[in-house]
TrEMBL record:
<dbReference type="InterPro" id="IPR036633">
    <property type="entry name" value="Prn/Lys/Arg_de-COase_C_sf"/>
</dbReference>
<dbReference type="Pfam" id="PF01276">
    <property type="entry name" value="OKR_DC_1"/>
</dbReference>
<dbReference type="InterPro" id="IPR011193">
    <property type="entry name" value="Orn/lys/arg_de-COase"/>
</dbReference>
<keyword id="KW-0456">Lyase</keyword>
<dbReference type="InterPro" id="IPR015422">
    <property type="entry name" value="PyrdxlP-dep_Trfase_small"/>
</dbReference>
<dbReference type="Pfam" id="PF03711">
    <property type="entry name" value="OKR_DC_1_C"/>
</dbReference>
<dbReference type="InterPro" id="IPR027605">
    <property type="entry name" value="Lacto_ODC_put"/>
</dbReference>
<dbReference type="InterPro" id="IPR015421">
    <property type="entry name" value="PyrdxlP-dep_Trfase_major"/>
</dbReference>
<dbReference type="InterPro" id="IPR015424">
    <property type="entry name" value="PyrdxlP-dep_Trfase"/>
</dbReference>
<dbReference type="InterPro" id="IPR008286">
    <property type="entry name" value="Prn/Lys/Arg_de-COase_C"/>
</dbReference>
<feature type="modified residue" description="N6-(pyridoxal phosphate)lysine">
    <location>
        <position position="390"/>
    </location>
</feature>
<comment type="similarity">
    <text>Belongs to the Orn/Lys/Arg decarboxylase class-I family.</text>
</comment>
<feature type="domain" description="Orn/Lys/Arg decarboxylase C-terminal">
    <location>
        <begin position="606"/>
        <end position="735"/>
    </location>
</feature>
<protein>
    <submittedName>
        <fullName>Ornithine decarboxylase</fullName>
    </submittedName>
</protein>
<dbReference type="GO" id="GO:0016831">
    <property type="term" value="F:carboxy-lyase activity"/>
</dbReference>
<keyword id="KW-0663">Pyridoxal phosphate</keyword>
<feature type="domain" description="Orn/Lys/Arg decarboxylases family 1 pyridoxal-P attachment site">
    <location>
        <begin position="145"/>
        <end position="580"/>
    </location>
</feature>
Length: 750
């Protein structure tokens, strides 16, 4: 078979047999009455990669309009449309004021420029041509070219002799597991999951064709100079940035809240030397801000001197600073505050904004974005990574890098596209999952219009109202908000950033090191406090409800939280959420509260957990379980341990860099030690609980007594409360014969 392309027409040269099987072939412009006459001959089949009938977007038709032969589009009565995003055009009758108002309202609903065509009662051929063209033009403007090309390619149902090997899902059909897979995901996915050798889908690695179109639109929308799409998650996006900037022995200013992907890429893989900045935790264990006392120039240079005395004297000692722009728990830095503090000391700043990215679409958050800063030749270059799959519309693993550095172009420290893409190609796959990549292009288009701001404003207000309802209806659970939140009008809360800003003087949030103007709490992340911690005074209360127990209840009721900590739960809001879903969440909290107050049995409240561990929880009430768990963490003063972990003195006192420790680990110059012997030994690998995926002990650091104590608390919690198991990396748990856990770690040999 030979496949060639002219414009969007694909010509297949093949040999056909006598049997006609329309189910195996794409639509062909051929009179099949004579098909049987063609036997074992070369046949030239012309396939237009355009859908014969548009079955995704529709044309809304007003009353009194008669249109015949509207072949390429499905139609729907105008008065039956309540979602303008489904439309490609609106056709109304001349002089119909009611229909014109309906059309105007639909356009205003989302700020989409939906074409409105007025015709006489019976649409003429010229009218139909005008309607078709207007709809096509609108679709082309609103739908990524990459997605359209992918759909057209998949709907042509080409025969595949390339990767991936499931060959349009046919290999799956040979086994029951494959049949289930095929039927669940559907044939569209199978045909769209094609090889990167298909030229008509552009080039995702060298950024050409429709992939580049979508990246350019993203750059325009997010105010970046250039955007790079990544399908390996923000782990790969961070790794690309670190690799593009850092070489061995470079200095990197390192926010201790950074995700493990940045420890691994910026420190382990590059060989750069970190200057760690300690960070804060509140009584709930929420991840807070960098300590502003460590961000003065004098203090920073003093810390550099402990690592590299010569570079401490340099004008710009840091090749890169890496900041967790927004923490997992929604503490969001003001980018200008950061740049004003450290910008003149750095060639570049990388803002890991995995948990943000939408701030430019929410007016009270716009000031947080580093991409909206006015930057000059003396400022640092800016890199931002965003997990589009977290609170935007990318599928899982969708991420993007935003580069804003034209203000330093021509300077020695500038990284141009060729050098940056050189590193990009080291980390991205050469076998892109095109459906996943398509979601990145869709995000560019979804976020581009003013309608996106309307949707974010709507969910912002819904989230505010939800918090107020929780304050009103629940006696046990409280949102993480200022004390007078319920008394502030929703419109004020939705339009004035001051209510979300955090300072050291405000004690409601419990962060004690917050600099003035340093950060605000993200209003699009709902944190619910569970009883047990006096946040203002940073002390344990007599009774408590651990977040893990509530999280288990929610999961068993098919509600997925983003994260739970010892006494809190986190929920992410996006424009995709509905009031009905938020009402269900509120009802679930109130239902748990009733179970708790009624002293209901664990087997009734958490039946899935109970079925797995009937001996452990037999006869337990949910209140009894909560109190036992609360007292365990209280006895171990756990939140104080969490605070101490990230403000340890002597963070720059490491004798071995993370890279050096990793090299020794790879050469087997390490040994396993029992946890009682771990203090003072050098970590061969990083250790952390997940979530949030932040190293407590980095490779090359010496294990401290507080590190030892914290992991022991987690390990013994696993023993005491089966079913409530945190994921732990870098610490190894094995069961002894008596059922207790042996805790060990890998350290560098003496």
């Amino acid at each position: 078979m030979h496949l060639s392309k002219t414009s969007n027409v694909y010509i297949i040269m093949c040999t056909v047999n006598y049997e006609y099987r329309p189910d195996c072939n794409p639509t062909v412009k051929k009179d099949y009455k004579d098909f049987h006459k063609i036997c074992n001959k070369q046949l030239k089949i012309v396939i237009k990669l355009e859908r014969g009938k548009m079955d995704f977007l529709k044309i809304a038709i007003g009353n009194g309009v008669n249109i015949s032969q509207l072949r390429e589009w499905s139609s729907v009565p105008l008065d039956q449309i309540d979602n303008s995003s489904e439309l490609a055009a609106i056709v109304i009758k001349n002089g119909d004021r009611t229909a014109k108002q309906e059309a105007t309202d639909l356009r205003a609903q989302s700020d989409f420029p939906i074409p409105v065509i007025e015709v006489d009662g019976q649409a003429s051929k010229a009218d139909i041509a005008k309607i078709n063209q207007a709809a096509k033009d609108y679709e082309q403007k609103m739908v990524p070219g990459f997605l359209t090309d992918l759909i057209n390619f998949a709907e042509a149902k080409p025969i595949s002799f390339t990767t991936p090997g499931h060959h349009n899902g046919q290999y799956y059909d040979l086994h029951p597991a494959g049949v289930v897979f095929n039927k669940f995901f559907g044939k569209n996915l199978m045909f769209a999951d094609t090889s990167d050798t298909v030229p008509q889908l552009g080039d995702t690695m060298t950024h050409a064709g429709t992939p580049l179109d979508a990246e350019k639109l993203a750059a325009q929308t997010y105010h970046a100079d250039k955007v790079y799409f990544c399908t390996n998650g923000t782990t790969s996006a961070n790794s690309i940035c670190a690799s593009a900037l850092l070489s061995e022995d470079d200095l990197v200013l390192f926010d201790r809240n950074n995700h493990k992907s940045l420890y691994n890429s910026a420190l382990v893989m590059s060989g750069a030397k970190p200057v760690y900045i300690p960070t804060d935790r509140n009584g709930l264990g929420l991840i807070g801000e960098m300590d502003p006392d460590f961000l003065t120039e004098d203090k920073i240079r003093a810390e550099i001197a402990k690592v590299d005395p010569e570079k401490a004297k340099a004008k710009r000692p840091f090749r890169l600073a890496i900041v967790q722009a927004e923490t997992y728990d929604g503490v969001f830095y003001d980018a200008k505050w950061i740049v004003d503090k450290i910008g003149k000391l750095c060639d570049y700043i990388l803002f890991d904004c995995a948990w943000g990215g939408f701030e430019e679409f929410v007016p009270i958050m716009e000031h947080l974005s580093p991409l909206l800063l006015n930057l000059g030749p003396d400022d640092p270059g800016i890199l931002v990574t965003q997990s589009l799959h977290k609170q935007q519309v990318g599928m899982a693993q969708a991420s993007q890098i935003l580069k804003k550095d034209s203000h330093i172009k021509g300077q020695k420290r500038y990284v141009d596209h060729k050098h940056f893409n050189h590193e990009y190609l080291k980390f991205v796959t050469s076998s892109y999952a095109y459906p996943l990549y398509a979601s990145l292009t869709v995000n560019s288009y979804v976020t581009a219009g003013e309608g996106n701001k309307i949707w974010w404003d709507k969910i912002l207000r819904m989230g505010i109202e939800w918090r107020k309802q929780l304050l009103k209806k629940s006696k046990l659970f409280k949102p993480f908000v200022p004390d007078n939140f319920a008394d502030i009008p929703t419109d004020e809360l939705a339009t004035n950033a001051k209510y979300w800003n955090m300072s050291k003087e405000d004690n409601w949030h419990g962060f004690t090191k917050m600099g003035q103007g340093e950060a605000m709490i993200d209003p699009l992340k709902i944190t619910v406090k569970t009883p047990g911690i006096d946040v203002k005074n940073a002390k344990y209360e007599e009774t408590g409800i651990p977040g893990a127990v509530v999280a288990e209840f929610l999961m068993e009721n098919h509600i997925i939280r983003a994260k739970n900590d010892l006494n809190s739960l986190l929920f992410l809001l996006t424009p995709g959420d509905t009031k009905e879903e938020l009402d269900t969440l509120l009802d679930a909290f109130l239902k748990f509260e009733k179970y708790y107050n009624d002293d209901a049995l664990v087997k009734d409240v958490l039946p899935v957990l109970y079925k797995e561990y009937p001996d452990r929880y037999k006869g337990y009430t949910v209140k009894q379980l909560c109190q036992e768990m609360h007292e365990y963490y209280k006895k171990n003063n756990t939140f104080v341990l969490q605070q101490k972990l990230f403000e340890k003195p002597g963070m720059q006192d490491y004798k071995m860099t993370p890279s050096e420790a990793d090299q020794m680990f790879k050469r087997n110059e390490n040994e396993v030690v029992d946890f009682e012997d771990v203090v003072g030994r050098t970590a061969a690998e990083g250790a952390l609980p997940y979530p949030p995926g932040v190293f407590i002990v980095a490779p090359g650091e010496k294990w401290d007594a507080v590190d030892q104590k914290y992991f022991e608390v987690l390990a013994h919690a696993i023993e005491k409360f089966p079913g409530f198991v945190p994921e732990i990396q870098g610490v190894y748990l094995d069961q002894n014969e008596d059922g207790t856990l042996k805790v060990q770690a890998e350290v560098i040999k003496k």
